[in-house]
Amino acid sequence: MGTYARPDFRLAPQPTAESAAFWTGGERGELLISKCSDCGHFFHPPGPVCFRCRSRNVGPEATSGRGVVAAYTINQQQWLPGLPPPYVVAMIELAEDRDVRVTSSVVAVDPADLVVGLEVEVFFEEWGEGEDRVWIPLFRPVGINDQGATA
User: Fold this and answer.
1) Which of 104, 143, 135, 137 is nearest to 122 (CA)?
2) Which of 31, 40, 77, 138 has its CA 20 to 30 A from that of 111?
3) How far apart are CA 16 and CA 61, in angstroms?
4) Distance separating alpha carbons of residues 51 and 11, to the nearest angstrom
5) What is the distance between the alpha carbons of residues 35 and 50, in angstroms, rounded to a whole number?
6) E strand spans, 1-151
7) Which long-range contacts (CB under 8 A, 24 or more apart) does 54-58 make?
8) What is the CA angle 36-70-115, rounded to 5?
9) What is the DSSP string of 9-31?
10) Burial class for 143, CB neighbours closer than 10 Å (0-12, 13-18, 19+)
């Protein structure tokens, strides 16, 4: 397994009314994903209406924060200062609903060891200040701590 060091820079999102819970749930260690109270399905990205049944009876709900890597790419180009390559961008299939995928980074793993189906869990990096603070969900192999060591 690889190690992980927090980068010097990340582009922080600007949450909308629908996405605010997703970007701030990490303050409490929760990966909040929209769920429809009528049909019972999770969905992401968040929105005001369930795309499956068209209900407006939706809201954020805490998930386990666990899932598997469904697809990934290893970026070798340095597009942003302070975020050196290589880094992994992946689609994480959530344990609660296999149809729900979150795009994020997978860290604390050597990119050569990354495989589709790898079990991962969420952790959060806090970025910004004051009202602009967000908690970006990142994923690492199950059983690895923030520094990449086996927990």
Assistant:
1) 137
2) 31
3) 17
4) 28
5) 8
6) 32-36, 42-43, 58-62, 66-75, 87-94, 101-106, 119-127, 134-141
7) 58/34
8) 155
9) --PPP---TTTHHHHHGGGGT--
10) exposed
State the residue for tokens 């605010």: 20
Q: Confirm if 63 and 32 have CB atoms less than 8 A apart.
A: yes
